[in-house]
Amino acid sequence: MTQQFAERAMNVAPTGARNAELSDLVRILEDQNRRKLDVIAPASALRFREGNVHVEGVESLITEDGVTEVDGIYRPTAVADEGISDKLRIPLAYLRRMRAENVPLLDENVNAWLRNDPERRFMLRAFRGENGPGMPPAEGVARALLSDSYKLMDNLDMLVAALDGVKQSGHPTRVTGCDLTDRRMYVRVESKAVAVQARALLRGYRSPFDGRSGDELPMISAGFVITNSEVGSGAYTITPRAVIQVCRNGLTEAKDVMRAVHLGGRQDEGVISWSGQTQRKTLELITSKTADAVRTFLSREYVEAKVRAMEDAAGKALAEPTKTIEHVTKSLSIGTEAKDMILSHFIRGGQMTAGGVMNAVTSTAQTLTDADQAAALEALALPALTAAAAHG
Question: By Cβ atoms counted within 10 A, which residue in 191, 248, 358, 382 is the most buried?
Answer without folding.
Answer: 358
